[in-house]
Design goal:
Layout (H helix, E strand, L loop, with lengths): L1 E11 L8 E10 L13 E5 L6 H10 L4 E6 L6 H6 L6 E6 L3 H4 L2 H8 L3 E4 L4 H8 L3 H11 L3 E5 L1 H4 L4 E3 L8 H6 L8 E3 L10 E4 L8 H13 L9 E5 L3 E6 L2 E6 L2 E6 L15 E10 L3 E3 L4 E2 L5 E8 L2 E4 L8
Parallel strand pairs: 3-7, 4-5, 4-6, 6-7, 10-11
Antiparallel strand pairs: 1-2, 2-5, 3-12, 8-9, 11-14, 12-13, 13-16, 14-15, 15-18, 16-17, 18-19
Helix pairs in contact: 4-6
Family: Belongs to the peptidase S51 family.
GO molecular function: serine-type peptidase activity
Protein name: Cyanophycinase
Length: 331
C-alpha cells in the first residue's frame, strides 16, 4: 500500500507513564520496510548550515538510502520535508516523526521506524529539545544503532548542532558572539556531549548560520570552554562553522563543500590566554581554513584538499574578533 502525506495520530502507553505518549507520524510512500540490496561501505553525513536547502547535497543524502526508507526527525512541525526528499526519486518511502517528549522518544513505534531507516535527517528547530527529549532514550539508542550500521545521517541548523561529539546545547536559550566573548561562563553558554557523533566529527563542535549571524566569536568561545574545562586538549579539538544555503558532504574521511556560502574549519594552536567566569575571553591564533563550493577537506588529516582554500588565524580579546589577514576580516 502506498500512502502520500498521511498523518497518523499514533498513541501508545509507555510502561513508565500513566498518560499515553503522543507523536506525529507522516508517511509518503510505502508503509512496508524496504531492505536495500547493498549495505553502505562507509558512514556518511550531510552537514547543512541552515537557510535554503541545497538540492545537490540533499539529493546525495536521498541516494544514500539506496532505494530504501529515509526518515526525518523533528520535535516540532509537520511533514514539509516528505515531498521535498521524495522528489529525488528512487526511495521506498519518506517518513517524518515529530517527537516532542521523552515519553514519545521511548515509544517502541518511534524506535522501530528509526531503526528501519536507510538514511536519517534531523530538521532545524531548537537543539535543546533534541537533547532534552531524545538523548538517553530508545530513540537516541536507535540513532546510535544506525551510525554503527554506517547509515548516512544529515541535519540542518539545530540538526547540525547535535551532530558533533560536542554540541552547543542552547539549554538556556541561544547566545550571541557578543555575550559569549564578554563572559564565556555565562549561563546561556551550555555545552553537551555524548548524544550523537556523526562520521568524521569526533573531537568536533559545529555551528550554523555562521557568517550571517556573526558566529566566529561564539564558536571560539565554545572551543575555549571545551579546552579549559578539560573536555579536549587544544591540539585535538576541532570546530566547523557553516554558512546558510551551504553544506558539507562527508564520505569517509573526505568532505566537500556544496552550496552558496563557505565552510570554516577551526583548530586551536594553544590554550586560551584567559577564559574565566565573568571575564572577557582572550584566545589567540586559532587557525581557520575557509572553503567554498567544490572545495574538499580531509577530516582525518584536518587539512584542505582540492580547491582554493583560504588560510588565516583569528584572535579575540576585549570582546573583539580579528584575523591576521590584510583586511582583518574573520569570514
Amino acid at each position: 500500500m502506498r500512502i502520500t502525506a498521511l498523518l497518523l495520530a499514533v498513541l501508545s502507553l509507555p510502561a513508565s507513564a500513566a498518560e499515553p505518549a503522543a507523536f506525529g507520524y507522516y508517511l509518503h510512500g510505502s508503509a512496508a520496510n524496504a531492505v536495500p540490496a547493498q549495505s553502505p561501505e562507509h558512514g556518511g553525513a550531510l552537514l547543512a548550515g541552515g537557510g535554503n536547502e541545497v538540492d545537490a547535497a540533499y539529493g546525495w543524502l536521498a541516494e544514500q538510502a539506496r532505494g530504501g526508507d529515509l526518515v526525518v526527525l523533528r520535535a516540532r512541525g509537520e511533514d514539509q520535508y516528505n515531498p521535498y526528499f521524495a522528489q529525488f526519486g528512487k526511495l521506498d518511502s519518506v517518513e517524518t516523526l515529530v517527537v516532542g517528549s521523552r515519553e514519545a522518544a521511548n515509544d517502541p513505534f518511534v524506535a522501530k521506524r528509526v531503526l528501519n531507516a536507510d538514511a536519517l535527517f534531523i530538521a532545524g528547530g531548537d537543539q535543546a529539545n533534541y537533547i532534552n527529549f531524545w538523548k538517553g532514550t530508545a530513540l537516541g539508542d536507535a540513532i546510535e544503532a544506525l551510525l554503527r550500521r554506517r547509515v548516512a545521517i544529515g541535519g540542518t541548523s539545530a540538526g547540525l548542532a547535535v551532530q558533533g561529539q560536542y554540541d552547543f546545547a542552547a539549554l538556556n536559550d541561544t547566545i550571541s558572539t557578543e555575550e559569549a566573548l564578554k563572559n564565556p561562563y555565562q549561563p546561556k553558554l551550555t555545552l553537551d556531549s555524548g548524544f550523537i557523533t556523526a562520521p568524521g566529527l569526533a573531537h568536533t563542535i559545529t555551528d550554523s548560520h555562521f557568517a550571517e549571524r556573526d558566529r566566529m566569536g561564539r564558536l571560539m568561545a565554545f572551543m575555549a570552554r571545551l579546552i579549559v574545562d578539560g573536555k579536549e586538549p587544544a591540539g585535538r579539538l576541532r570546530a566547523i562553522g557553516i554558512d546558510p544555503a551551504t553544506t558539507l558532504v562527508v564520505e569517509g574521511d573526505k568532505a566537500r563543500v556544496v552550496g552558496e556560502g563557505a565552510v570554516y574549519f577551526l583548530n586551536a594552536n594553544g590554550n586560551p590566554a584567559d577564559c574565566r567566569p565573568g571575564q572577557p575571553l582572550r584566545f589567540e591564533g586559532v587557525s581557520v581554513v575557509r572553503l567554498k563550493n567544490g572545495d574538499y577537506f580531509d577530516l582525518k588529516a584536518w587539512k584542505a584538499g582540492e580547491g582554493q582554500p583560504l588560510h588565516y588565524r583569528v584572535s579575540t580579546a576585549d570582546g573583539r574578533v580579528w584575523s591576521d589577514r590584510a583586511d582583518g576580516g574573520v569570514y
